[in-house]
Amino acid sequence: MSRWSWLTERRTWRAVAVVILVLAIVSSPWWAPRGMARLSFFDVRHVDVVGTRFVEPAQVVAMMELDTTMSVWGDHTPIAARIAAHPQIAEAHISRRLPATLVVQVREEPPVAFISTERGLRALDASGDTLPLDPLRVDASLPILARNDTVILQLLASLRQDVPALFDRISEVRREARNELLLVMPPLHVRARADLSSSRLSDILPVERDLARRQARVVELDLRYRDQVVARVQ
């Protein structure tokens, strides 16, 4: 074999080797997890649950239904679906932390109010669905409603997101008339129209500050009149 032929063949095999290497790297997301899933080194030994407040992390782990041979490289889509089926959980995402830990990121469905029933207080979300939250076990200070009222629930959900400081002050909300609400915010009451918004309720803040500066004892603020906050003081 001539030196030229030898160099040509060597270069050809080198090119083939490079192509094979590139193909192996490109296809590794498909074959590598399957191969590593067979190694006991990657069997799940730890679970970290992140984002829970109302659901116990141990309950989330129980819903995963793990077995001793499950690998962190496995398909975790069915596991996330089982977790998200819990009425308190809106979404669950599972990632891996090598070599043997699954990280479960949970987004809970937040309660916005309690409703009084024959069986005691029941937590509701913004849609009016009942959540499995035990008020005796979980420290959740929420407004109390006389009945399941989606207009009020959606208002409370908006307040919780936009002005949580005001939401935390509300102990009770009830309808005084078809289109009027009464919000109990100790030590005062706030009257408003049923279409009350977060920004409109926020109008009470500068009024409260002004009344406090004057050392006036306010007992009720009335928001039923457009662009006005009517204060009733003692």
Question: What's this entry about, in short?
Answer:
The protein has helices spanning about 5-25, 30-35, 55-65, 75-85, 150-160, 165, 200, 205-215, and strands spanning about 45-50, 90-95, 100-110, 115, 120-125, 130, 145, 170-175, 180-185, 190-195, 220, 230-234. The protein is an alpha/beta fold and about 230 residues long.
What does this structure look like?
With 234 residues, the chain is an alpha/beta fold. The protein has eight helices and twelve strands. It has helices at residues 3-26, 28-37, 57-64, 77-84, 150-162, 164-167, 198-201, 204-213; strands spanning 46-50, 89-97, 101-108, 113-117, 120-124, 130-131, 144-145, 172-177, 180-185, 188-193, 218-222, 230-233. A nine-stranded mixed β-sheet has the order 6-5-4-7-8-9-10-11-12, with helices on one face. The protein is elongated and about 75 Å long. The chain starts with a helix and ends with a strand. The relative contact order is 0.08.
What does the secondary structure layout of this molecule look like, with pairings?
Layout: H1 3-26, H2 28-37, E1 46-50, H3 57-64, H4 77-84, E2 89-97, E3 101-108, E4 113-117, E5 120-124, E6 130-131, E7 144-145, H5 150-162, H6 164-167, E8 172-177, E9 180-185, E10 188-193, H7 198-201, H8 204-213, E11 218-222, E12 230-233
Parallel strand pairs: 1-3, 4-7, 7-8, 10-11
Antiparallel strand pairs: 2-3, 4-5, 5-6, 8-9, 9-10, 11-12
